[in-house]
Amino acid sequence: MVDDPLRALLRGCHGAAVASWKSKSAASARAELIRTPSSAALSRELDFFGTSSKRLEVTDKAQSSSPGRNNVKSVAPTSADMSAAVASPTLEAALAHMGIVSPTAVQRRAIPAMRAGNDVVAVAPTGSGKTLAYAVPLLSELLSGSRAQHRSAPHALVLAPTRELAEQIGRVFTRLSSEARVNARIKIVCSKAAAAGLKAADGLIDIVIATPMRLVATHQAGAINLGRVAHVVLDEADELFAGNFLEQVDDVLASCGSQLKDGTRVHMFSATFPPAIETLAQGLLKKQKKIVIDGGAYGGSAAVGGVAARIEQKFMFVGGRGEQGKVMAVRGLLKEGLRAPILLFVQTKDRAAELYRELVYDGVKVEAIHADRSQQARMRAVERFRTGEVWVLIATDVLARGLDFLAVESVVNYDMPSSASAYVHRIGRTGRNGRKGTAVTLFTEEDRVLLGPVLKVAKVSGADVPEWALKLKGVRKDVVRRMEKRPPTRKRIGGPNRGSIGKRHKKEKRLESRSRTEKGEADSESTSDGKKRNSATKGKQTRRKKRGASDGLNVATSLEEEEYE
Ligand SMILES: Nc1ncnc2c1ncn2[C@@H]1O[C@H](COP(=O)(O)OP(=O)(O)OP(=O)(O)O)[C@@H](O)[C@H]1O
């Protein structure tokens, strides 16, 4: 094993793989793998959330030619386009300070549309800057003084399907408002603690960013007044209108009640907006302004689009050998130099655990995100990925939407996404903000039903879809829909290594369990009802063990599950 330079690299290097698996031979890819950048250089590249000043230091050929663009200290002048879109010199300067000097297409159109008092529906590709497209007009209203001034009554409400996304949106608002000195009171409500804090503070709030479940609970507890909300923004609107969240979103909008009739504006943003969701959303939009950018598809039979232009999409049939074929395919991709960091999507948390075992045994620097781990452990996993300590992050669809992992080079759909929309969002974790990215989708015989819709999206977005694939016999829509709701049951992931987990993994298990115990202890110390909390934690751990999840790799299976405490 030591003879194999790839194995040595996978074990020891912090550098990113720089070879494209598609365009280079295995030998040259390996050679490039050996010339990895330093960990410092890599960590500069890995600003996943795109909101810190590090992002401006990224060494990117496309950007480095524009002087001042990569220098945090020098603020480049903004374009005429930017002045016209933002219409606020203060915000314009703040954006320039963040390295944002010209608007993206969706910003160019959505910012003025929101300012003009419309209900904006914006469908634009992943990574095209939709967050700022609504953050700018909302903060600009606060700047101009037209804000609600009622206790616990926010001026604007932003809903997002997951806690991670809500927190990311919160970071964007906080950064921009502090750069512009808006002095906006921004609250992120996506955990019990945050909701309790809101009640305790009982003060003025300008903007609330929340997950639907937590906001409903907070409202029911009387900690927030939704009666005077001027704007409701639904980020990942199609997901918020889908089964899991519909009831809660409905409750929130009902709580904005009378205001919805006489003036609350409702805005929807996503990279996908299927016709069924459009019909559902129509009733809420009084003064609607639709904005559809590039691949973003709004209505029509295509139903989804929104694939960022620079993502190279590849499909690999791993057919006959089923699950074993997939593991081999992933090993092959890594060996051939698929560019890291890599996000690897699987269908369920159990499969994440199984795949983790396979890869960790190989010596791949891999992590898996799971909802049962403490928030600290989750953040640590992301941080390890961010700094290049971990090359491959295994996740379920909980990480598929909205998260701005700016430096992710490749996405692998280890398991076929459950719908064309899911495909768009998953692969959209790479190729963000005009960067290049690679998306590889593995499929077997049992994926035939979902393959058709996914290939259509790929074809529409300019991917080189093989002729044979386009000739695949169509599947009835109701069969596709059934499959979207209930993806195929897959065989366990496990190759020859299964069962022999190896020293390294055992060590990871020990560390994980130690960190859980520490967390339990910390919880018990920091609460007055410590005993209760500590025994509850222990009970939870026991239950987990009973469920056969002693390796602690329970990745959430649904977005709903993600709303943990
Ligand atoms: N005008 C701009 N110029 C340069 N960078 C920008 C601009 N607008 C946004 N960005 C950056 O682009 C990245 C992607 O933005 P954002 O997360 O808002 O995309 P999105 O369209 O919401 O993606 P998704 O559909 O996946 O949620 C962020 O890192 C953001 O800071």
Can you give keywords for this protein?
3 domains; RNA helicase activity; Rossmann fold; 24 helices; Helicase_C-like; disordered N terminus; 45% helix; 15 strands; disordered C terminus; 565 residues; RNA-binding; single chain; binds adenosine-5'-triphosphate; 7-stranded parallel sheet; 6-stranded parallel sheet; alpha/beta
In a nutshell, what does this entry contain?
One of its GO terms (cellular component) is cytosol. With 565 residues, the protein is an alpha/beta fold. The chain contains 24 helices and 15 strands.
Detail the topology: elements first, then pairings.
Elements: H1 5-12, H2 26-34, H3 39-45, H4 61-64, H5 80-86, H6 89-97, H7 105-115, E1 119-123, H8 130-143, E2 156-159, H9 163-179, E3 186-189, H10 192-201, E4 207-210, H11 212-220, E5 231-235, H12 237-240, H13 243-255, H14 257-261, E6 265-270, E7 272-273, H15 275-282, E8 288-292, E9 297-298, E10 311-317, H16 322-336, E11 342-345, H17 349-362, E12 366-368, H18 375-386, E13 392-395, E14 410-413, H19 420-427, E15 437-443, H20 448-460, H21 467-470, H22 477-485, H23 502-526, H24 530-546
Helix pairs in contact: 5-7, 6-9, 7-8, 8-9, 10-11, 11-13, 19-20, 23-24
Bound molecules: adenosine-5'-triphosphate.
Adenosine-5'-triphosphate is lined by residues 50, 100, 103-104, 107, 126-132, 271, 402, 404, 406, 428, 432-433.
User: Under CATH, the topology of the largest domain is which?
Assistant: Rossmann fold
CATH superfamily of the largest domain: P-loop containing nucleotide triphosphate hydrolases
Low-confidence stretches: 1-73, 297-304, 496-502, 521-565
Sheet of most strands: 7 strands, parallel
**How many discrete domains?**
3
Q: Compute the number of strand runs.
A: 15
CATH class of the largest domain: Alpha Beta
Taken from the alpha-carbon principal axes, the silhouette is globular
Order of strands, widest sheet: 3-4-2-5-6-1-8
How many helices in DSSP terms?
24
How much of the residues is beta strand, in percent? 5-15%
Termini distance? Answer: 43 Å
The hetero molecules present are: adenosine-5'-triphosphate
Q: Given the helix and strand composition, which structural class is it?
A: alpha/beta
The CATH architecture of the largest domain comes to 3-Layer(aba) Sandwich
The pLDDT mean sits at 72
Helix share bin: 40-55%
- The Cα radius of gyration reads 23 Å
Protein name: RNA helicase
EC number: 3.6.4.13
Family: Belongs to the DEAD box helicase family. DDX52/ROK1 subfamily.
Domain Helicase C-terminal: 333-473
